[in-house]
From TrEMBL:
Protein's UniProt name: Glycosyltransferase family 9 protein
Origin superkingdom: Bacteria
InterPro entries for the chain: Glyco_trans_9, LPS_LOS_Heptosyltrfase
Keywords (A to Z) from UniProt: Glycosyltransferase, Transferase
Gene3D superfamilies associated with the record: Glycogen Phosphorylase B (3.40.50.2000)
Species name: Micromonospora thermarum
Length: 308
């Protein structure tokens, strides 16, 4: 979601050296980006790692401009004290249904740091050539000469509250297979009821290369509101995203975003972590699991995939 801001700042400041401080493994997605001069990551994964990394980065060179999305551990205050100019909260005062990425760009435009044209930029990840080649080799080998474009199912979400029911995944995979679509999977699947061919476990740039190869064949990546699906969109593949506890109007990718239970009274678009279901997936509306995810009908998802 931050890539358009990164690329917009680089375009507006062509003589500057842009440094990014982020976490592994996501750092691999910007190391090959021509807009980025340096990528830094915390030295360890323990408490205080991010704050220590910010202190180290500021000591290495005082930036003329610091832009931050991190709000904990006193990091905004560090940036203010150690930088020439700062924009330390790209989340501030969000309208309930404005996409997060658009909010970032709007704030930076209001600060005079981006042009109006930058506000329409979509996320795009720049990959090393080897990642492109590796992704192409894998997909070409697995796809062959299909009757219909390939479809990738991203079955996990990192959080139970965002997971689509396994029975829905099985029904979708079966329907796609009957229509001639090669079906691939990313993430855990039921060994007793495989959904399709698992894509090889690879690093993030190579996974993005696989998604790009699927996109070049007119394929679609389907999954919940989670990182791999966003990566697929940034790599150029069409996506169908299944939204439950998060609001598609705020977190959507811009391709096909399907919202389960759109009138849920417990959904809080700008305060998702305060929803009663968020951390433990205990849905106030259903003891069987998140009602919003179950509400996403297989036929509706199938129609969206085949139309994408």
């Amino acid at each position: 979601m931050l890539l358009p801001a990164v690329h917009g700042l680089a375009r507006r400041h062509p003589d500057a050296r842009l440094r990014i401080l982020t976490h592994e493994p996501g750092a691999d997605l910007v190391r090959a980006d021509p807009a980025v001069g340096e990528v830094r990551t915390p030295r360890h994964g323990g408490p205080g790692a991010e704050r220590a990394a910010v202190v180290e980065a500021l000591a290495a060179r005082r930036p003329d401009l610091a832009v931050g999305t991190t709000r904990y551990d006193g990091i905004p205050d560090l940036l203010v004290a150690g930088s020439g100019r700062t924009v330390t909260n790209l989340w501030r005062d969000p309208p309930p249904h404005q996409p997060v990425g658009e909010r970032y760009l709007e704030i930076l435009h209001a600060e005079g740091l981006l042009d109006a044209a930058d506000r329409a930029t979509r996320p795009r990840v720049h990959l090393p050539e080897e990642a492109h080649r590796a992704g192409e080799r894998t997909v070409r080998h697995l796809v062959g000469e299909p009757l219909a474009p390939p479809v990738v199912l991203v079955t996990d979400a990192g959080m139970a509250v965002k997971r689509w029911p396994a029975r829905h995944w099985r029904a979708l995979a079966a329907a796609l297979t009957r229509r001639g679509h090669p079906v691939f999977t990313v993430g855990p699947v039921d060994a007793d009821a495989p959904l399709g061919v698992p894509l090889p476990r690879v690093d993030l740039p190579t996974l993005a290369g696989q998604f790009a190869a699927v996109g070049r064949r007119g394929g679609v990546v389907v999954g919940p509101d989670t990182g791999p699906v966003r990566l697929a969109a940034a790599a150029g593949a069409a996506t169908v995203v299944l939204f439950g506890p998060t609001d598609a109007r705020r977190y959507g990718t811009g391709d096909v975003d399907l919202q389960g239970l759109p009138d849920c009274p417990y959904r809080r678009p700008t305060a998702i972590t305060e929803q009663p279901c968020w951390w433990e997936a205990h849905c106030p509306l259903s003891a069987a699991g998140p009602a919003c995810m179950t509400d996403l009908d297989v036929d509706a998802v199938l129609a969206a995939v085949t139309a994408a």
